[in-house]
Amino acid sequence: MSYIDLRSDTVTRPTGAMRTAMYQAEVGDDVYGEDRLVNELQERVANILGKEAGLFVPSGTMSNQLAIRSQTQPGDEVICEYSSHIFNYEGGGPALLSGVQLHPLLADHGILTSEQIARAMRPTDHHYAQTSLITLENTHNRAGGVVYPLPVIEDIAAYADSQNIRMHLDGARLMNSVIASGLDPSAFGDHFNSVSLCLSKGLGAPVGSVLVGDAECINRAHRFRKMFGGGMRQIGILAAAGLYALDHHIERLADDHQRAKTLAETCLELGYLENDIAWTQTNIVLLAFPDGNTAEVELKFKQAGLLVSVVNDHRIRLVTHLDFHEEQLHRSIEILKQVLG
Ligand SMILES: Cc1ncc(COP(=O)(O)O)c(C=O)c1O
Predict the structure, then answer these.
(1) Residue 316 to residues 110, 142, 156, Cα–Cα distance (Å)
(2) Distance from the alpha carbon of residue 191 to the mean position of ligand 1, in angstroms
(3) Nearest residue by C-alpha to atom 8 in ligand 1
(4) What CATH class does 252-340 carry?
(5) Domain assignments of the chain as residue spans, ordered by start
(6) How many Å is the maximal CA-CA distance in the chain?
(7) Which fold would CATH assign to domain 16-248?
(8) Which of 95, 88, 278, 293 is nearest to 170 (CA)?
(9) Which of 19, 127, 175, 252 is the most exposed place for a label (fewest CB within 10 A)?
């Protein structure tokens, strides 16, 4: 049986044209800094986000972890959101790799405010860990692809600046925010010391993220990338996929958003949409199951040909992406009605 796969936007396969770009890529040894396409990709993402330098890394997780390691000291505290990827899905990395403690704050729809952060700050006193970094996630995955409002980011950044605290953005899906908001990527980037952008989610590359920031931060991250075993060699073939994605797969995210909206409308009609439909802002749709029967529902979807992601007993997630086309949208709506109707 061939399935419609809405578990994640990471399930996409490189298109024929992307594979051609990879096949034709010239390569060099990137540990020597000699892979031209990697250098081009790093510079390109840094420019797009208004930063001095970039570093190509294997995953979004490594990118976030390098950002934390290169901008904190062991014993520091990092403020993040309670349902953020960094706090929930990165294997406790900050404790081991950076020796920092996370201070997660629960926020409405994943959106922290400067007031909330100010309240959570530790006093300057020897009893307390000192906050040295704030991390935000845009779009916010677990909140359902929510776009961080720019004024909220501006407020947090102004507060962070006043306290001499650095800011990191987990921008795994930043381009979804860019397309949904119509803002320039640098409008977001300007407010952060470092930004991680994933190429392997909505952008459809098979692998890779780019961490950008000021030259000193990226230089430190480069050293830690080597230490963590992330130095790679002839990876121009991967950079070529990333460059192709930047050229061809950003504008089309609007299609993913439109299809997610259509799915959300169906879920709303059926009574299973978790939040007000205004919160379906990008490519993620959250369904709520008050009876806690998501495992059973997942199986029914699977038997009907649709793969979904079970977040917990009460929540299922659908994610639209490059390999999810109009015919599959129609079929998915039929399946949603058949299983939930
Ligand atoms: C918001 C967010 N950040 C980081 C990551 C980590 O990316 P990777 O799976 O490449 O490590 C993910 C993965 O889905 C994510 O959703």
Answers:
(1) 17, 11, 31
(2) 21
(3) 60
(4) alpha beta
(5) 16-248, 252-340
(6) 62
(7) Aspartate Aminotransferase; domain 2 (3.40.640)
(8) 88
(9) 127
Ligand 1, atom 6, residue with closest C-alpha: 60
81 lines ligand 1 (CB under 6 A): no
Place of tokens 């793969």: 307
Per-residue pLDDT of the chain (341 residues; tens, 9 = 90+): 799 999 999 999 999 999 999 999 999 999 999 999 999 999 999 999 999 999 999 999 999 999 999 999 999 999 999 999 999 999 999 999 999 999 999 999 999 999 999 999 999 899 999 999 999 999 999 999 999 999 999 999 999 999 999 999 999 999 999 999 999 999 999 999 999 999 999 999 999 999 999 999 999 999 999 999 999 999 999 999 999 999 999 999 999 999 999 999 999 999 999 999 999 999 999 999 999 999 999 999 999 999 999 999 999 999 999 999 999 999 999 999 999 99
Is there an atom of ligand 1 within 6 Å of 170 CB? Answer: yes
pTM of model > 0.90: yes
With a 6 Å cutoff on the Cβ, whether 172 touches ligand 1 is yes
Pocket test for ligand 1, best of 141, 194, 196, 210 (most atoms within 8 A of CB): 141
Structure tokens that stand for 236 in this block: 């121009």
Closest CA to 213 of 339, 86, 42: 42
Tokens of 275: 């939040």
Q: Verify whether ligand 1 is closer than 6 Å to residue 141 (CB atom).
A: yes
Determine the distance separating the centroid of ligand 1 and the alpha carbon of 181, expressed in angstroms.
21
